[in-house]
Specification:
Elements (H helix, E strand, L loop, with lengths): L1 E5 L5 E5 L7 H4 L5 H71 L8 H20 L6 H29 L5 H11 L1 H18 L8 H29 L8 H13 L6 H5 L8 H15 L8
Antiparallel strand pairs: 1-2
Helix pairs in contact: 2-3, 2-4, 2-6, 3-4, 3-6, 4-5, 4-6, 7-8, 8-10
Length: 301
């Protein structure tokens, strides 16, 4: 003989005499057509999770491999950029220093003029890249572009002029070729400075973890639901119901009444640490919710 005792919170406990208790999985199909369908749907749904998780894991592995490749490429490009910029700076610096020594500043002051010209190119380039994300800095970027263009023109022209003056003994076409060749280092310095600034700003990030995304989404949904119940509790206060109970406790009580499955008893809901109300107060909240909010009557007893 089997008797069925109901506990206060609505859970059923089967007490059998002389018969080994059955597991809930064995009893679930016998719960009726709806219970049978739910059990089958659960059994059908479980194997489908494995291929999905496997696809997500494979996709994450591919993204991580791509990320490692991008990071290695970025480091290699950064090192190559620094090397080319250094060589270009040395060649341009040498030509400008010799031109300054021939023209106006013989001796050690000739070392300062190239630092002003090429240093201004580097400074203006870094300023342009730093202000690029900010639309309100448009005129500052225009000023920096003007400074960069002027410094680049002086650097390229100075290198070309130095090559032209140094090859006075050659034929005309060779002098023009030397001037064009001398323009390569300042142009390379300008380009590599821009590249270095772009690589510095570029920071590859790891792909988002599927598990963390699911957790974040679940947290967002929980917060949204709690905000909904807080608004409902405030509406109950405005209509004059349960004013002796805080809106936070009302919101938690509504959440337990309408979202908890299987339904909990009023005593069990009131005993929750975030509520701590007498079951009569929980009953008042349950009775007021359909009137104020137009919700169906919850199943708590």
């Amino acid at each position: 003989m089997t008797t069925l005792d109901s506990s206060r919170d609505g859970a059923a406990v089967a007490a059998q005499t002389g018969v080994e208790p059955q597991s809930m999985d064995d009893l679930a199909p016998a719960a009726g057509p709806s219970g049978h369908m739910q059990a089958n749907s659960r059994r059908r749904g479980r194997p489908a999770l494995k291929p999905r998780l496997s696809r997500d894991a494979d996709q994450t592995d591919d993204e991580l491999r791509t990320l490692h490749l991008v990071r290695r490429s970025r480091r290699a490009a950064g090192g190559l950029t620094i090397g080319i910029a250094t060589v270009s700076f040395v060649l341009s610096f040498t030509s400008l220093r010799e031109l300054a020594a021939m023209a106006a500043w013989p001796g050690w002051p000739s070392w300062l003029w190239p630092l002003i010209i090429d240093g201004t190119i580097v400074l203006a380039t870094l300023g342009i890249v730093s202000l690029a994300p900010y639309r309100d800095q448009f005129w500052n970027r225009v000023f920096l572009w003007g400074v960069l263009s002027s410094a680049a023109l002086v650097s390229v022209g100075g290198n070309a002029l130095h090559a032209w003056l140094s090859t006075g003994h050659m034929v005309l076409w060779m002098r023009w070729g030397s001037a064009g060749l001398a323009c390569v280092p300042p142009g390379a310095l300008l380009a590599t400075t821009h590249i270095a600034a772009i690589l510095w700003r570029f920071n590859p990030t790891p792909p988002p973890d599927a598990t963390s995304q699911l957790c974040d989404r679940a947290l967002e949904l929980a917060v949204d639901r709690m905000d909904k119940w807080r608004a409902a509790a405030a509406q109950m206060h405005e209509d004059g119901y349960c004013r002796n109970v805080s809106t936070t406790k009302i919101a938690h009580a509504l959440r337990y009444l309408y979202e908890c499955r299987p339904p909990m008893s009023l005593r069990a809901i009131g005993a929750q640490p975030e509520i701590e109300l007498h079951h009569d107060n929980v009953g008042k909240i349950r009775d007021a919710a359909p009137i104020v909010l137009g919700l169906p009557v919850p199943g708590g007893r």
